[in-house]
Amino acid sequence: MRDSMNTGPSNTSNTSSSTLPTPASKPPTRSRHWNWLEKFLPILSLVLLFVALAILSPHFLTLPNLSNVARRTAVINIMALGMTLIIISGGIDLSVGSVMAFSGIAGTMLLQAGLPLPVAILGAMVAGMAWGLINSLLITQLRVSPFIATLGTMGAARGLTLVITDGLPIVRLPRTFGFLGDGNLLQIIPVPLAILLALAFLTGYILKFTRLGRYAFAIGSNREAARYAGIPITRYLIAIYCLAGAFTGMAAMIASSRLMTGQPTAGQGYELSVIAAVVIGGGSLAGGEGSVSGTVVGAFIMSLISNGSNLLGVSPFWQQVLIGSVIVFAVAVDELRKRKQG
Question: What is the pTM of this model?
Fold first, then answer.
């Protein structure tokens, strides 16, 4: 009897509380504003940086300078496209600068031997793919972390390049080689920029419309879940690292063409700029996030920082400090976003 008396009011209260109208929830405007800012922050930063340099330096908007920015950015950007795939899949590649030097030497040695330019470019891309294969096998077969594996191949590729060349550049290359880095299409479009656009469209297509792209996101988001879903992780990681190596080989030939030499010391410190381009463009070092458009914007931001610093007389040592600070800021913004979502 007492139990029935006790349960009666509670049931009534539960019923009445369930029938009470709930106040309409307010739209998460703050969250929407944050998402909007996060999405457009890279391109907004690029526009502001471009306008600031145009105001601060009278030489910035000149055609020779803008052409130089486009050609220089293409080298970093092409390498960053491959790095985008790697970072999306949850990896990283610290060997890109050394692989660039090795690939450039391989391609220019083929040119020096009298082989045609397309064959030399193919040889450089194959050389880059070979190092990508080595990196992927170390990661997938020996279970070495991407950071340690590519740190090791960074030293190995650089050392082997210096051994092959005895530390001397490859010279006496055909004059037609210069068109790859300094030529123009339709007398206005820099050849490196045209190559960059073609590879950017290719990478975007891979990410959106192929298994390789979908599986890269899946592996980077949750590798164990991807494995349980039946995704052949080893096969696709090998493909990703080899494709990134091929892109690095292409970038190496463009850089060598601009100098008309194969430099065994080329690409030193490029790994920092390449990774920074992906991170600034919205890629997450934790994997599972990244885009082609973001990487392209991030690479142009890095290039404008360097170009603007030179025009304004900023010491190259301070440029390194600035680039490092930009990377830390981009990673901090990414971590803050994840905490808000979590």
Answer: 0.86
**Residue 11 within any structural domain of the chain:** no
Condensed to tens digits (0 to 9), the pLDDT of residues 242-279 reads 999 999 999 999 999 999 999 999 999 899 889 989 99
Structurally, the chain folds into a number of domains equal to 1
Neighbours of 205 (CB within 10 A): 12
Domain span at 126? 60-341
Residue 127's contacts (CB-CB under 8 Å, 6 or more residues apart) are 99, 102, 103, 106, 107, 249
Using CA atoms, how far apart are residues 41 and 25, in angstroms rounded to an integer?
28
Cα dihedral sign, 84-82-187-172? positive
CA atoms in the 13 A half-sphere facing the CB of 186: 4
Rounded-to-integer distance, Cα 19 and Cα 15, Å: 6
**Residue 312 lies inside a defined structural domain of this protein:** yes
CATH of the domain at 258: 1.10.3470
Number of other CB atoms surrounding residue 272 within 10 Å: 17
**What are the residues whose beta carbons fall under 8 Å from the beta carbon of 33, sequence distance 6 or more?**
none
